[in-house]
TrEMBL record:
Species in which this protein is naturally found: Waterburya agarophytonicola KI4
PANTHER family the UniProt entry points to: CBBY-LIKE PROTEIN (PTHR42896:SF2), XYLULOSE-1,5-BISPHOSPHATE (XUBP) PHOSPHATASE (PTHR42896)
UniProt-recorded name of the protein: HAD family hydrolase
GO MF annotations, alphabetized: hydrolase activity
UniProt-listed InterPro entries: CbbY-like, HAD-like_sf, HAD-SF_hydro_IA, HAD_sf, PGP-like_dom2
Keyword Glycosyltransferase carried by entry: no
Alphabetic keyword roster: Hydrolase
Pfam name, any one: Hydrolase
Amino acid sequence: QLQGLIFDVDGTLANTERDGHRVAFNTAFEEAELDWNWSVELYGELLKVAGGKERVKYFLRQYKPGFVDPQDINQFAAYIHQLKTKYYLELLHNGAITMRRGTIRLIEEARQANIILAIATTTSLPNVIALLEKYLDLDWFEVIAAGDIVAAKKPAPDIYKYVLNKIKILPQNFLVFEDSDNGLIAAKKAGLKTIVTVNNYTKQQDFSQADLVVRDLGEIDQPCQVIQGDFTA
Ligand code: XBP
Ligand code: MG
């Protein structure tokens, strides 16, 4: 029976991308005196690459070939990324990022039912810590698996396998909450039942492998709207 929930962060627990990470990247570009600006639309395309550093490197390859010498690309991406993380944390502390509907309710209900909670996210650990400390409680989570803790990011299953190695619950007794095709593929490769909550950046993606697709997790007086599948899954 259900013994554990594993939550993705960006797009699932909170809508962090359009007004959070994207804005933080653009502020980092300004500070680095680069005349780059990732529009909402361009960022949607860049989101196909999980990981902020990996996303910068993808952008360089696709849109700025030759701008940075190949041997300097990792260092350049790390430099931009540490600037961006500083700005993202400022945005988060200032309240620019809020939890999605139904997430806090579901987490509190899970705690009442003694269900184990874990995080499996591509975003950097400081970003997760700041979000959970602001809206929830770090102690509620048995495992917080984030960012570079694993070599291969989503859609590789590594981050989910990391959680499964840390918590002695059978995979079939977990339920995953995700928002993107990358995340769904990662969870499925780890053999995990997955519910997808869509958002504007991901609603057109292929979620045929999901056990359930809903608009959001809903509140007691506002049941969640099923888009695909049914609750018996
Ligand atoms: C989403 C990501 C992350 C964030 C940016 O993670 O792919 O890279 O976009 O955060 P998830 P960083 O949906 O798995 O939570 O810049 O710290 O990577
Ligand atoms: Mg996500």
